[in-house]
Amino acid sequence: MPRRSPSIRIAWRLCALAAILAASALLSALLVRLAPGFGADERMLDPRLSAASVGAIRRERSEGSDIAGYCWSYVRRLAHGDLGTSVSLGRPVSELLAERMGVTARSAAAGLGISWVAALGGVFLLEALRRRTCDAAASLAAGTLLCAPAALVALVCLYAGGTPGLAIAVVLFPRLFRYARGMVRQAAAAEHALAAEALGEAPLRILGLHVAVPIALDLLSLAALSVSMAMGAAIPVEALCDSPGVGQLAWQAAVARDLPVVVNVTLLIAGVTATVNAAAETVRAAREAEA
Q1: pLDDT of residue 264
Q2: 186's torsion region: left (phi>0), alpha (psi -120 to 50) or beta?
Q3: What pTM value is reported for the model?
Q4: Domains parsed from the chain with CATH numbers
Q5: In this structure, how many other beta carbons lie within 10 angstroms of the beta carbon of residue 8?
């Protein structure tokens, strides 16, 4: 099959990104609409409110009842840079996201950095040592952390005085460790690595040239995937650690059935994930074309 030109590949990726964002917005709106308690508001239980006030609240909460109509109006507002107004907080969604994105970005970046350093350091150290007891202990520790829910990790870090970034790192570490360990094992068992070892090359040289270099593109794909992992882990971590980020906002909006906030946060997470994955695929394709 003839290869597509770079412009066609970029156009396909942009179309795929638009389709992912549209599907994310539609599904998030549909899930909120079908969730129990949609349209209810605790303010309606206030006996001091008049019937007109209760009716106004009911009309306000039923804005998203027609999913198709809501999505169409959302697209029209989005074209003018309007992300809507939060029903529960009474503030523009754009202001809420602008205030909280920095907090989540710092926590996610810290978690990604700590988890990647720990995972790669542990993997290459185990490969250099090649001791079954150390390998078994590391696998047991990673498996135990993998079974721990993100909410439990967040609570432990909160009571221990840790930061949300540390909690995100603990959530990501076992996943990155297991994937990276499998990649390194497979690369170390390749013929060129075994031949280099048989010729007496230094272990560090073998790890660098014959193990790390061949799996660099695979690690790049894993790095892109870890960004979406960090965004997903940020929601329970920030909610339980009382960190004023996008994750806490998403949790509050989901509890309050705040459709404008839920849709925009879903689009934000989906957009970041799809953009990072597309960038990683572009770099990988360029490297493979050069090779």
Answers
A1: 85
A2: alpha
A3: 0.79
A4: 6-290 (1.10.3720)
A5: 10
